Amino acid sequence: MYPLYMFEALAEAIETLVVPAESDALVEVFQLYGRLAAKATLAAGAFDLTGGWELDGSASMTAWMRVHLDMTNQQANRVLRRARRVRGLPTTAAAWEAGRLSSGQVEIIVANVTDRRADLFYDHEAAVVPGLFELDILDTLRSMQDWAAKADAVLDDNEPPAEPAAEVHLAKTLDGRGYLNGTFESANIDVITKGLHLALAPQVAGEPAGSYAQRQGQAMVDVFQFFLDHQKVKLGGRHRPHVNVIIPLADLLAGRGGRNLQGQPLDAATLGRLVCDANIHRVITDGPSSILDYGRSTRTIPPAIYTSLVLRDLGCRYPGCDRPPEWCQGHHIQHWENGGPTCPSNLVLLCSRHHHRVHLPGWHIKLLPTGTVEVTDPQGNLRTSDPPNLC
């Protein structure tokens, strides 16, 4: 264990440091921050290599960083990935510590020096890295991508290319949401791009406009939902996904939300949308450990009724939406949790996007005896959708 006083001067300097909100000052302080990050990252890599994390019983370097450095697993893995790659690149490590390479440039190097290309880069490093010193971040990216393409060509001539592996990482973030990151070969990127484009929900007049990124996010969810609804591997019904919802009795009676088995909260709008057309295990509790009722899995919209909805509505009935029935879910006009019956007169087909919308506070939807659907937004604007022509 290094003595704490070793960094006393650094601690005092940080304590008294004032960073002006000016361009030159910010450039200088972030350059120094990058050099400190280099030293800390390389030290972490050396500590990882010696196995020092085992001395206090940690199961891994990641676990040690989580406990001693208060890092999330995602943060720790990012630091370790960089440390493990750079510790075998002496020119890169020295340039990073000296401030000749920024942390962003080092991240680009690490991203392009894959396991397959690593041995070749070790041979080229002394010639390649100095050429990056005067480049900005975009030119660094282009330069390293050019090197990677040439390296792949050399490796392909010397050995059969390995089947490119797609990688996807899905992790929960600290705010209870999720983060999806992945890498794919170019042909698969074309497939994904085309699929997302075709799955984009239409922009309907009069509803809040989302950004293109938000629409792509909803499109990806719709693609997964479509698979769950129509896959043939798991037999039984329409293959609706199961949802386990835990909710205290007082919250259920008050119309509040619950949580899933992982402890993530489900607000009332989300809960209402889920119970419209899914297999539900309800767990009603009274206090922290007393379970009052664990209901059996109940299909709230049986296949026969869903089929009748498809024949009647022919797709999403939200005014202006043209989603076909295979992208839609059944929505209870009078909410299921409020005693709404599961019968065609209380059901309407809605696509995932508009199903979510009508469950938000202030939105109301009606199905008139004539088959007309009325949607009222929080501002009181009324829009209608006439029944489709079945002739």
Secondary-structure blueprint of this entry?
Elements: H1 8-16, H2 23-50, H3 61-68, H4 73-86, H5 90-98, H6 103-112, H7 118-128, H8 137-158, E1 167-172, E2 178-183, H9 186-199, H10 212-230, E3 242-248, H11 249-253, E4 258-259, E5 265-266, H12 268-276, E6 279-285, E7 291-294, E8 298-299, H13 303-313, E9 328-332, E10 347-351, H14 352-358, E11 364-367, E12 373-376, E13 382-385
Parallel strand pairs: 3-6
Antiparallel strand pairs: 1-2, 4-5, 6-7, 6-8, 9-10, 11-12, 12-13
What do you see in this structure?
Helix content is 45%, strand content 15%. The protein has 391 residues and is α+β, with helices and mostly antiparallel strands. It has two domains: 4-158, no CATH class; 229-385, no CATH class. Strands 3, 6, 7 and 8 form a four-stranded mixed beta sheet that branches. Strand 4 and strand 5 form a beta hairpin. Helix 2 packs across helix 4 and helix 2 (23-50) runs antiparallel to helix 5 (90-98). The longest helix is centred in the first third of the chain and has 28 residues, at 23-50. The N and C termini lie far apart (82 Å). Mean pLDDT is 80; it is low at 235-239 and 288-299.
| Biggest sheet statistics | 4 strands, mixed
Helix and strand composition category: alpha+beta
Q: Based on CA inertia axes, which overall geometry fits?
A: elongated
Question: First CA to last CA: what distance?
Answer: 82 Å
Report the sheet-strand fraction: 5-15%
Any low-confidence stretches, pLDDT <50, length ≥5? 235-239, 288-299
Strand tally: 13
